[in-house]
Protein: Integrin beta
Organism: Sphaeramia orbicularis
Amino acid sequence: MSQCWLFLLLLLMGRNGLCQKEEVCSKSVINSCSDCIKSGPYCVWCQQLNFTKPGEQEAVRCDTQAKLLERGCKAEEILSPPNSDTVTKNDRLSSTFDQQEPVQLAPQEIRLELRPGLPTTFPIHFKRVQGYPVDLYYLMDLSNSMKDDLQNVKGLGKDLFAALKKITQHAQIGFGAFVDKTVLPYTNTNKDKLQRPCDAADKQCQAAFGYRHVLSMTPREEEFKTKVTEQFISGNLDSPEGSLDAMMQASVCGDKIGWRNSSTRLLVLTTDAGFHMAGDGKLAGILEPNDEHCHMENNLYVKSSEMDYPSVGQLASQLDKNNIQPIFAVTKNVVNVYRQLSQMIPKSEVGELSSDSRNVVRLIEDAYNKLSSKVTVTHDNLPENVRVVYTPRCEHAGPPGENRGVCDQVRISFDVTVTADTCMKTTSFTISPLGIKDTLTVTLSTNCECQCMDPQVANHTHCKGKGRVHCGICSCSQGFVGQFCECSIGDKDEGTLREACKDENGVECGGRGDCVCGRCECHTTESGNYYHGAFCQCDDEQCEKFQNKLCGGKGKCNCGTCECNTGYEGSACQCTVSQEACRTINNTVCYGRGNCKCNRCECDEGYQPPRCQKCLGCQNPCLTKLNCIECLGFDQGPFKKNCTEACSKSVFHQMVDQFTLSSKQCEQKDSEGCWVKFKLDQLVGKDNYWAEILKSRGMVEIILTYIYIRPVAVHTCSVRYTAVPKWHTNRRAARTRQCEHCSANPLAH
């Protein structure tokens, strides 16, 4: 029972619109009614005087109609430019063809004026005229493998005309033939073979050719029979043929083929082979792309050996442009190939041709019935930022689509929905059924301005007598600024005052306030609080959240930063104040080389968690503290004169005979070249060490030359020297002495 009540409740909600999508006005920078209209399809403007409070941003005038009414704006004061559509040409649909230009699509012209983002829908109607003329161009593959088919086609004229007369009394038939490009590797270029490319057993054979137009459109059956009877088989080397070349020329050479302006145009291609397409010409060194132009002289395609084959896209475009509907009558071995091709060419059909083409008439009848029973409408030259959706209104309708709509009935309707996403100048595009000449021209413009009912008073009291009212907002006279023109700028220009209100990014009051006499008056936030700061840069609602609460509910948000209550810390006040996990074995916090936040050490640069004891990226203290070790331990070196000032606060030392510290031993040369050995233990803090220094320094080798060495004072250290006469060139053979007590001049030894 409860489930039944729930179902009824949901049904009632749906019927009353409770499940409908809510209208939303997504505002950005709004300074005028025009800015509001451009912001979104559901944004409307309140032009009511005194709608805004003093210091309140005029942007509050822009919102959805429901919200403005809720805030107290009168319905008659709300501006919302509507969409409009005007049919400018709507001739009646024709019933039968009577030699006049028939009308199969209505309307023919429509003018739309749209708000950006707001769709409008209008209907179009199509009715296929009974007895509408048909032009059929029979394009046949005359390669050697189609020899049997040609014999049957020569007798098809009577049956073909009979089939077309069932459809219309105004039928015409033309004929063309193709093989392939007359260059290697497609055709044997031996002179004799070019003239006679068929097998030796074939008595009748015509010279190799690419595409030949044989017969222009004619209503005379006998003329068709005579011209087709004159045709003979030709030949080439490879299996794919130049069928796309032939179809392209048949499409673009309309005056030579004889296509009528008012007719259903059918192009029947019969073949038992695949097709060459764009890029295949490179095999013959043909690099020039197909230009989609007519190149027929004396009924022959003269650029066959100079231009590449067309691409499928090029061919589809020209077929569509010239309202030609292809029917591919192909043998079983290539049916799948042409079905794939048909998927890329709108309004085309594929039929399986018997091995000798006996069933071609029935195949054409079936294909025509399929093409004529289905109507596909689409558009051309659609401007940027314009969207069109077609919704068929018929019994066998296809799904709504942005590119086209499909109906399987003779008389059908479509709902066409047009949306302009941005403001734009007047432009136009066309809508038409594929394969049909009739078109609908849609002229489109956008409505991005407000037609406000402004009072015709030069100095309105609403503006303190210093300006006009436009769409509810004051437009101040020269020398006055402010929401109500209340500020006289005196000898200063308005630009100077406004410049004082711009933040570091050049935005006036950060977009959150009004510049009044050179100072920012900040607006209220959506929740009713105020922005604050010299440039309205602060609000107290944008701080970090914890457990979906601002500042975790344990602090106050101030200009984007949480100020935590006593006992709490963290960027969102998410932690209780504690240093337990930051304490070291000597009861310090992070060894003085970091800060304890949220009970975790945030170490200074280079020092590693968890307690900042080691520094992987710091310089070696054996090198950085050598000068202090030298001056503290031996009263010499660069810091000798200011040793206390330079070193006493960072290095505490003790002279020892042997080390007691377990840290790494440092061994460095001092300023006099003696080896100094010491150990360092880092204390609390970054630049704070305990040092043990060995009293004796290490041995140094001195090489002396008898004549040029003068006596010098030598400090107490172990010295090893080598005396070498000036004329002695072999030092390795020189005498070496060991000096253990060097307080005297070493030369005395």
Summary: Residues 11-20, 703-716, 718-749 have pLDDT under 50 and may be disordered. The longest helix spans residues 2-15.
